Amino acid sequence: xxxxxxxxxxxxxxxxxxxxxxxxxxxxxxxxxxxxxxxxxxxxxxxxxxxxxxxxxxxxxxxxxxxxxxxxxxxxxxxxxxxxxxxxxxxxxxxxxxxxxxxxxxxxxxxxxxxxxxxxxxxxxxxxxxxxxxxxxxxxxxxxx
Length: 145
Fold this sequence. Notes:
Purine-nucleoside phosphorylase; alpha/beta; four-stranded parallel β-sheet; 2-thiour_desulf
């Protein structure tokens, strides 16, 4: 069984109230081959909510911030930890997560300037999954599964 980002399964849980539906992933959820989870919702964040990116300050410290400056680091960490807890309970070995997201992004994320530019990196949940032995993929990697 896979753990997948809820937005990829068609759930309107993205920051702007939309989804990133992937028909294959949605079908896997319907067939019981995957479970859909949104770490941001698990943390209690509303939909819609401010658009956030991982921002690294001059000291090298990471925080999850909205363009307007609100700090959502605590909530994003809590959501990632809760998602990992669920994954461990179920025995998840592989996750398919929404690319570029500050929570779920894998390999490439937005650079923290809110300019649409990308950089190498992982979202908080993706990073936590990797550190705990869960293989992480994005919706762009389905051919590798």
